[in-house]
Amino acid sequence: MSSFFEITTLPIDINSVARRVVPPECGATVTLDGYARKFTKDKQSGEVRETEYLEYEAYEPMALKEMQKLVDAAHLKFEISNIGIVHRVGRLEIGETSVVISVAAPHRRAAFEACEWLIKELKRTVPIWKKEVYADGHHWVEGEASV
Predict the structure, then answer these.
(1) pTM
(2) Which of 6, 27, 110, 116 is most buried by a 10 A CB count?
(3) Strand 48-50 to 97-105 pairing
(4) In 2-138, which residue ranges form alpha helices assigned H by DSSP?
């Protein structure tokens, strides 16, 4: 059992991602289920818009290389055992999972910290783009700056 990362066009089974990272020496697994939400608040204007669906695109060869870098960096930065990252591309309806990140660690604190760091860095560095589609148009969302 080891860390993994994937890009898929299929629905993501959250439990199967989480269970793939669990080794016997670990006492905690933290799993993030990122999914398409119905309402989005614009960070600059504060306007809340109703999202009809999302579309994700990726430059897959580079995205996989960047995901590998994230996994490697997280192993150096945190006391964790395994990481699973699966990101979906294509059209996603409201409520469908777009990304799952699961981190197994001997202790929960490291798993929580690594999981939060991984989603921030994934949004910031991995070439996966999100288009929010509304009744009156669409908006490409840029990656988020690391906090």
Answers:
(1) 0.91
(2) 110
(3) unpaired
(4) 14-20, 60-77, 108-125
3-state SS assignment for residue 130: strand
Question: How many angstroms separate the CA atoms of 92 and 10, rounded?
Answer: 10
Partnered with residue 90 across adjacent β-strands are 56
Tokens describing residue 40: 């989005």
Mean pLDDT, residues 27-43: 90
| Residue whose entry in the numeric block shows the structure tokens 């988020």 | 144
> Which two tokens mark 27?
């006492």
CB distance 84 to 101 below 8 Å: yes
Tell me the pLDDT tens digit for each residue of 72-109.
Answer: 999 999 999 999 999 999 999 999 999 999 999 999 99
- What is the percentage of the chain residues whose pLDDT exceeds 70? 95
- Between CA 121 and CA 75 the distance in angstroms is 14
